[in-house]
Amino acid sequence: MQLKVQKEKYRVVMLLEDMKIIGDMHITPRSRLTDVLNSNQIKDFIPITNAEIEVYKTNEKRFVDFMEVNKTKINAIYPEEYNI
Description:
The chain is 7% helix and 54% strand.
């Protein structure tokens, strides 16, 4: 029997070299974003749902239900509520 871990949606903005991604991370309740990113919970890729992707070169926007972002490619990440 496998137990399911409860998680909360946390809307984040990720800045990569060539794009911006706004989407939902799913983290355990009362966890801080930095703790989750630095823990063993996330190895190489961060699963994101309900994502909006903006490509800087073309200003093209796309929407996807699910994607995984390579953690090493992220230049900055912050809660959407602080979006500039």
